[in-house]
Design brief:
The complex is a heterodimer of chains A (107) and B (114). With 107 residues, chain A is mainly beta. Chain A has strands at residues 4-7, 10-13, 19-29, 34-39, 46-50, 54-55, 63-76, 86-91, 97-98, 102-106. In chain A, strand 4 and strand 5 form a beta hairpin. In chain B, the strands form 2 sheets. A 6-stranded mixed β-sheet of chain B has the order 2-10-9-4-5-6, with no helix packed on it. A 4-stranded antiparallel β-sheet of chain B has the order 1-3-8-7, with no helix packed on it. Classes of the chains: A mainly beta (107), B mainly beta (114).
Chain lengths: 107, 114
């Protein structure tokens, strides 16, 4: 079973700054099976990135995903006020699993 | 538009069962797997399993095997998740999500309390 860890647990930044979120897998993952989600309080998660680097429909280009093997990164180039949220990585292998999340809050 | 609409909030006693529905619209129901994911208060996302609405085949997370049943009714484009022998730590928001999780239901709050 693949376990995902995310770092940092909380990232305190200001609007306009760059956010770099890390996701590490306990063993190598096919990058086709890595996704990133955003979740705001009281809302369902929202798919941002699939296949490690492909943006989902309607996702702004300030969101980008990279990585391979065991290390994956979500980058938000310039934080907008609406980007402050919790971000989860996910691997779609068997069994499917989510990371514990990174909270991006306002500094 | 493509959407998943879930049933309303439930309050159950320990030991009881709960059945949550997820009605799909705007796409071919049998063309996409459906996942069930839950989130306990203040916690992260936990995958419970998926159902293939076409065949009815299922794949459950090991943690829930023996306690969860996922079914579907293709005539009304609706999937169901039933969780038995409820405990207080099953209190959570339960979501259905389509295949690659590009579409999510609004969530169903299940509260287990004596």
């Amino acid at each position: 079973e693949i376990v995902l860890t995310q770092s940092p647990g909380t990232l305190s930044l200001s609007p306009g700054e760059r956010a770099t979120l890390s996701c590490r897998a306990s063993q190598s993952v096919d990058s086709s099976y890595v996704a990133w989600f955003q979740q705001k309080p009281g809302q369902a998660p929202r798919l941002l990135i699939y296949a490690a680097s492909s943006r989902a429909t309607g996702i702004p280009d300030r969101f980008s995903g990279t990585g391979s093997g065991t290390d994956f990164t979500l980058t938000i180039s310039r934080l907008e006020p609406e980007d402050f949220a919790v971000y989860y990585c996910q691997q779609y292998g068997s069994p499917l699993a989510f990371g514990p999340g990174t909270k991006v809050d306002i500094k | 538009q493509v959407q998943l609409v879930q049933s309303g909030a439930e309050v159950k006693k320990p030991g009881a069962s709960v059945k949550v529905s997820c009605k799909a619209s705007g796409y071919t129901f049998t063309g996409y797997y459906l996942h069930w994911v839950r989130q306990a208060p203040g916690q992260g996302l936990e995958w419970m399993g998926w159902i293939n609405p076409d065949s009815g085949g299922t794949n459950y997370a090991q943690k829930f095997q023996g306690r969860v049943t996922m079914t579907r009714d293709t005539s009304i484009s609706t999937a169901y998740m039933e969780l038995n022998r409820l405990r207080s730590d099953d209190t959570a928001v339960y979501y259905c999500a389509r295949d690659s999780m590009d579409v999510w239901g609004q969530g169903t709050t299940v509260t287990v309390s004596s």
